[in-house]
Amino acid sequence: MRKAMFTCALALTAVFGGTTVQAQEKTNFYPLVLLGERLEVCSSMAWQRCNDTDWIDRDAMRSDRYLNLSNVYLEPLLDIKNWGPLRSEVRDDVKEAIELLRNRVNQDVISERVFLEEFTRRATRYLYDQLSEADWNMIIDHLEMRVPTDVEFGVNLMATKEQVQLDFLRDIVSQAKQVSEGETPHVLVVTAAQRDSLDLVNYYLQTFAGAGADASWLPLDKAVLAAREDNACEVLDEYRPGEMGAYRRAAVHADLHVRQVAFCDAGDALTQIRNADAIYFADGNPDLLRPLLVTPFNEPNELAVGIAERIAEEQLIVAAAGMSANVMTSRAMVTGGSSAAALREGVHATRAPGLGCDKDDTCPRNLREDSATYHPMGGAGLFRFGTLDTNMGEQGNHGRLLRVAATNRVPLAVGIDAATALLVNLRSGDFKVTGERGVFFAAGAQQNELAVASTFHYLMAGSNGSFAGTDLTEVSFAEDAQVVQVEPTTNFISSRGLYDSLRLLCRDRETVEVKWQQFTMTLIGGEGTETALAGAECQVQNARIGMQYAPAERF
């Protein structure tokens, strides 16, 4: 154990200190790419993201999940082991609802979209509202039919609506080209953060291939770890319900399951990492991804050390999207929850409860489905500068990020908006913001029972700077920015109300106070604060923010 810990420390020092490894100088090199949301381009399964859908061949391309409502699929779903003795009434209601739906559509096989539309109609809507997210996933998994081997996951980059998604894809591939020594860059795709780690494998492989890279899949996830530990790879599918919350994946994704079983038996993740120019961690659940990179003793494991060593040698790019980006930190790791819950009740050092956990009685004691959670010992350890969070403006995650930072005395916390990427050079600390929105930086967060406050900066895409100690230095504001095409709001708890209110600081207001339901936010500028407009958005440096839970009875 002492040798493993020493090796890990040496590798991370090489990354963070930047003095023990000599590498060829690269230009505009940022080996860590953090995306504020999932990477999603135009595909046959996500036609809403396409400008044009005429190219989709529904006979040759996978365009939907198909469910079978016959008893052959229904009976295993209704097994008492899936529901437990205390939920037999819910199980019976599910049986009745599916039989009613089957009679209504008068066919056994329907698409998942039609199933959802029918299930949420008046006659069965009451039941849908009683089901947790875990319940619904279990129902879909049991009814889902095998993905045919003669159809492909169609991807069309050129038809993608959102140009920013293509820009992020090209950012990752262009960084990887700097380490591939003139060869086509090889991207290793990791889907372990996703509940069904097999479902989108081919989508990501085709996406990166379309962007000019070779791509392969690392078939490692939490279920594989557990099956390996028990020397039971031959029954890998039996581990997925408990470890991943996924059912019958061997029947649905037969070919990928066979590959994963083979990897479970004899696969070598370190060899795949050594052969990669970039690793892409797909968006998902941080609690599923973290065990791949951290030991039960909260030390970066062999895999994390291998990644750190290759980054230290400037021979690897690491890209992580959405909540998987949170796992890259060495500081306290945000795992879920809402800002409202964080401000109201604080944050909890535990796994994130599932959505609707109150409906199936799986919420941990004293927690609700929106309780804000974190892991105090951090994640993979690559991003040493602070705690990370994503989807900031879109979900109003500033409150939970500030709470986690204050609770753990993290000097700096970094929150990345959707449609935005933060590119970081881990050796120099230099960073740049790309995309369409911005990045929120909170320094020195402090709190009491009902409030949290910090110094903060907000930089739009096109800005750059450097991490220095516990703050930023050499900041250059963006000169322009995309216009945000949404109505302004004062909702800073679950939407972009912070940024809409921030515009007032760029209009020479020194103090802005905003109320939303039972919460109050105060923004303070004044002496020492720098502001700059980028399009219609306000960028600031060295302003202050306070958020407070202020229920009416406390006024």
From TrEMBL:
<feature type="signal peptide">
    <location>
        <begin position="1"/>
        <end position="23"/>
    </location>
</feature>
<keyword id="KW-0732">Signal</keyword>
<dbReference type="InterPro" id="IPR029062">
    <property type="entry name" value="Class_I_gatase-like"/>
</dbReference>
<protein>
    <submittedName>
        <fullName>Cyanophycinase</fullName>
    </submittedName>
</protein>
